[in-house]
Specification:
Strands 8-7-10-11-5-19-16-21-22 form a nine-stranded mixed sheet, with no helix packed on it. Strands 12, 13, 14, 15, 17, 18, 20 and 23 form an eight-stranded antiparallel sheet that branches. The chain is built from four helices and 23 strands. The protein has three domains: 101 residues, Alpha/Beta hydrolase fold, catalytic domain (Rossmann fold); 74 residues, Immunoglobulin-like (Sandwich), CATH 2.60.40; 143 residues, Jelly Rolls (Sandwich), CATH 2.60.120. 13% of the residues lie in helices and 41% in strands. The N and C termini lie far apart (76 Å).
């Protein structure tokens, strides 16, 4: 496989050699490697495994030295020696470890952090929670990361605004690297409103509509099929239709303590969240799978109008609205602390 890498490097992405006889033909492959390594295309993977008794006799040690001197930075290679193994037995362990090395950093999950975006007060920091526990690097000025960038520790990052948070996971070859960004601007706390009259605790008013949409409709132009209160026993899957419908949720919630508040929408398909007239989360459109969007902003004591919009085209109905006082870590699942106006 080393010969294939040196002569036909475009053939594969990863090359494995287990206890290979590099001393064959007067170190022919070792000499070839010294000449051709520097011209290899980027992001190839080379895994070589040996056993203690043949590491020197097979010339593996001499190729190791050539690789250290001549291998380009874009060649991801590793030389491993397995004690207490034979030429035949080492194959199982070596190939297993080689595949792990080749696919290091691979994941079928998204790279996410929360909150994803937001408004921050000057010199008042927040904590970002990172979902992955992998080896992650980040910057806060929007620049690209490398392995010398700040490392995410304990799945948390602390930032002050303004900031453009860039988070990146690294894989062995670079093929499975992932990157995601969040934008945090400086601003002020949103203004609250006086306590509405005839308010009742327990949930949000909802209006249910039927239709076929690929994005959220203009609810002002629609007539609801059903209305009610989304209270603690409300279940979106109990609505008349499972697909091709939309819901509008409206009401108020009360902030009892100044601070940063984190909002999130989990939905499939499109959803938006407004505080007053300000759109803070936009997750509109048809989604193949359930998705999450989040936002952080400072709020003061008082009441805030809230409006959440949601539509479901097909698939399973998923809609959840959550908010959290970051400073007290008092997580609340929608809709238990929301209120609706009886007017």
């Amino acid at each position: 496989m080393v010969y294939a890498l040196l002569t036909e490097p475009q053939s594969f992405g990863s090359y494995y050699a287990t206890d290979p006889p590099f001393s064959f033909n007067d170190d022919y492959l070792i000499k070839m490697a010294a000449q051709k390594l520097e011209n290899l295309p980027p992001n190839k993977i080379l895994w070589i495994a040996g056993i203690e008794s043949t590491y020197k006799g097979q010339g593996i040690n001499r190729l190791d030295s050539v690789l250290r001197l001549k291998a380009p930075a874009a060649l991801h290679w590793k030389m491993a020696t397995f004690p207490n193994e034979t030429h035949n037995s080492v194959r199982l362990k070596a190939m297993y470890d080689g595949i792990k090395f080749s696919y290091s950093g691979y994941s079928n999950t998204s790279l996410n952090f929360h909150p994803m975006n937001g408004i921050l007060l000057k010199d008042k920091a927040i904590t970002i929670w990172v979902e992955s526990s992998s080896d992650l690097r980040y910057t806060i000025d929007g620049s690209e990361q490398d392995l010398t960038s700040n490392k995410v520790v304990d799945s948390k990052v602390t930032i002050t605004g303004p900031a453009q948070l860039v988070l990146k996971s690294f894989s062995t070859s670079g093929k499975y690297d992932k990157i995601t960004r969040g934008y945090f601007e400086l601003g002020q706390a949103l203004h609250s409103v006086p306590k509405p009259k005839k308010i009742k605790q327990g949930g949000l008013k909802y209006s249910y509509y039927e239709g076929n949409w690929d994005k959220l409709p203009d609810f002002k132009k629609l007539i609801p099929v059903k209305t009610g209160v989304a209270d603690s026993v409300f279940n979106i899957n109990k609505l008349p239709s499972k697909t091709n419908y939309a819901c509008l949720f409206e009401g108020y919630f009360e902030i009892v303590e100044d601070g940063y508040y984190y909002f999130a929408i989990v939905s499939n398909d499109g959803a938006k969240l407004f505080l007053g007239n300000k759109l803070i989360i936009d997750n509109d459109g048809v989604h193949a799978t359930e998705s999450v969007k989040s936002f952080v902003l400072p709020l003061k004591k008082g009441f805030y109008p809230v409006r959440a919009e949601y539509f479901q085209k097909d698939g399973n109905s998923v809609f959840q609205l959550l908010y959290l006082n970051i400073e007290t870590m008092n997580a609340t699942n929608y809709p238990f602390k929301f209120q609706y106006n009886m007017n």
